[in-house]
Amino acid sequence: MLNRKLVKVLSFRYVILAVVFVILAGGLLLLPKHEKQEGISPENLLANAFSPERYITTDELADRIINQDPSLLLLDVRDESSFKTYTLPNAINIPLSKVLEEDSQPYLNQNAFDVILFSNDNFHSDQAWILCNRLGYKNLHVLKGGLNEWYNTIINPKKPTENMASIEFEKYNFRKAASMYFGVAYPEKVVQKAEVKKYVPKQPEAPKKVVPKKKKKKMPLEGGC
Amino acid sequence: MGPLIPNDIIPFEWNSIIAIVIGIFFGFILEASGFSSSRKLAGVFYGYDFAVLKVFFTAALVSAIGILYLDYLGYLDMSMLYIHPTYLWGAIIGGAIMGIGFVAAGFCPGTSLCAVAIGKIDAIVYVFGIMIGIFIFSQLYGLLDPIHNGYFQGYVTLMDSLDFDPYWFIFLFTIAAVIIFAFSDLIRKRVKKVFY
């Protein structure tokens, strides 16, 4: 009896399978839609946020600016008024509130430049970095310490004391030279220049010796090809 | 989580081993469902056997529905899957040539190897023909290269190019498949029975 029933059911097996199929496909339609996580996963974001890889030191940045690194793109994430008061040379202003706007995307989401984000500290630039990293943008860096650190190290470097390691002196020399590049005038340098002008009398110019150059005789062209 | 190999859950070195194992099972199931018989394969075109149509349609649907569910539940990242690049005219012309070969010989390249494995002589001839075709293609490659590598459309899917919701697409596709299965059964009943 049972066997006969089973046979009867199984004679509809293809119909049953087709119905299962349609139900499964229809189930896809009925699933509650949820927004898919876009950008990188939270685990990756956390790992990136912990990693100090994104930071660039002020010394490194100064070196790259002085060497006129063409791949450098400086982005100032402070507000417009601070940007107008003082900023790094050739920096572009994208206030933190405008980081996600359409106009800022070409600067942030690109592969050609090394973008350096900076603000007064690295606080706002870090926030901008997190947002952009979440969106999966590449080549973003943060100026460690921001403009305050820039001022303390490059613009106004601290003179090392005598008991410090020689490397500190080298660093100081570099920073001092860099600050001069960025337009800081040191009194001792200015004085020295003036002294040079005062004490060294102008030497009379030696008469120019005219050395007649022998012109090379042009050889007549001989049949080449 | 998935795909397993790109996400390093299974080491990359297992790639070919897994491929071989899957290939063995694929061949086994092809043979078990009678796909190494050219009469069965050609039946689609003459209307006395629609097993090929049903099997491949069902396989495509099972995997499509399965992938969408896995993607929805987060077990599989669908954006990481390989999508075959579209070279429009290369695909159209190649598809037509393959179709002619299919209906003329009663094998597709996969099933022909399956049939060679069980010693069918027509399949051996067929595979020999494939080799000749490959040889001609490679000799004329300079001529055919603009078609082979031209008309590149990118890694597109039907859903991208039609701008269609994948869930609706699969649902309509499933209903269409069921209707086609029923319709093909009707045809099969009308056509004179062929014994093979």
Tags for this model:
heterodimer; A: alpha/beta; Oxidized Rhodanese, domain 1; five-stranded parallel beta sheet; 10 helices; B: 196 residues; mainly alpha; 69% helix
Structural features, described:
The complex is a heterodimer of chains A (225) and B (196). Chain A is built from 10 helices and 5 strands, in the order H-H-H-E-H-E-H-E-H-E-H-E-H-H-H. Chain A is α/β, with parallel strands linked by helices and 225 residues long. Chain A has a domain of 112 residues: Rhodanese-like domain (Oxidized Rhodanese, domain 1, 3-Layer(aba) Sandwich), CATH 3.40.250.10. In chain A, strands 1-5-4-2-3 form a 5-stranded parallel sheet. In chain A, strand 2, helix 5 and strand 3 form a beta-alpha-beta unit. The model of chain A has no long low-confidence stretch (mean pLDDT 83). With 196 residues, chain B is mostly helical. Chain B folds into 2 domains: 99 residues, no CATH class; 73 residues, no CATH class. Chain B is built from 9 helices and 2 strands; from the N terminus they run H-H-H-E-H-H-H-H-E-H-H. In chain B, strands 1-2 form a two-stranded antiparallel sheet. In chain B, helix 1 packs across helix 5 and helix 2 crosses helix 4. The mean pLDDT of chain B is 88. The chains are: A alpha/beta (225), B mainly alpha (196). Chain B: It holds the Pfam family Sulf_transp. Chain B: Keywords: Membrane, Transmembrane, Transmembrane helix. Chain B: This is YeeE/YedE family protein.
